[in-house]
Amino acid sequence: MRMTFLRLIVSVALCGMTTAALAAGGPLGIDHRLNKDDESGVWARNIQLSVGYALIGTSIGGALIEGTETRLGLTFWRMTEAAALGVATAEVLKRTVTRARPIQENNPDLWFQSGNHRSFPSGETTLATAVVTPIIMEYAHDYPAVYALALIPAYIGVARIKSQAHWQSDVLASFALGATSGYLVSQSAQPLTLRLMGNGVFVGLRYRW
After folding, report:
1. Which residues contact 206 (CB under 8 A, 6 or more apart)?
2. What is the mean pLDDT of each run of 10 residues along the chain (209 residues)?
């Protein structure tokens, strides 16, 4: 199921990436800078941010309200932990490989540039993928329509490329990182956060009163 999910989001995202380029490069030979397009319409930056905030709010809010005593509650907790794991890993990679963003340099082969060069990977794409992975893994077998949630990270990935914030390979790596984070968290029977605190159960707010 994890590989099916990855193939799905990659396929959807690739449909939104322009394949023709004057000079492509990068580790996969597909990286090229698109014309900047994040000022209006569906690709507007404020919409990108709103989607990200909605994902974070839904996962954290759902975890607190539902707790860990229901299937949905556990899924929300996994979504939250997957997001934290994915974003933390992405941030470490950003600060380690310091790849130049398309908006900084029109050269996808500039790695280890130090400073504020943090193109690889895309933190927002990683976040979106990590959040939707646990719910897809949990419910897609029963409700195949849940696979449609893959459109969310695909949208974010394409939007970040159109914003000249990331290269195509940054986004593809982020899909893999986010999906892996979601998969790893989903293998645990109880939320890691609560286990580290010495308790594997969190009673949701809706059940306390």
Report:
1. 65, 66, 67
2. 59 55 76 80 92 96 90 94 97 97 95 94 97 96 95 95 95 96 90 74 67
55-93: b (≥16 Cβ within 10 Å) or e: bbeebbebbbebbbeeebbbbbbbbbbbbbbbbebbeeb
Alpha carbons 116 and 104: distance in angstroms, whole number: 10
CA 116 to chain centre: 21
Task: Tell me the three state secondary structure of residue 87.
Answer: helix
Cα–Cα distance between 83 and 88 in angstroms, integer? 8
User: What is the pLDDT, as a whole number, of residue 21?
Assistant: 46
- Per the DSSP assignment, residues forming a β-bridge with 103 are none
- Residue with tokens 């299937």, as numbered in its chain: 71
Residue 195: the pLDDT is 77
Per-residue pLDDT at 92: 97
Helices vs. strands in the chain: H and E counts, helices first:
8, 0
3-class DSSP assignment, residue 150: helix
DSSP per residue, 106-139: S-TT-----TT---SS-HHHHHHHHHHHHHHHHH
Residue type, 57: G
Instruction: Put residue 193 in one of left, alpha, beta given phi > 0 → left and psi -120 to 50 → alpha.
Output: alpha
- Residue 203 DSSP one-character state: B
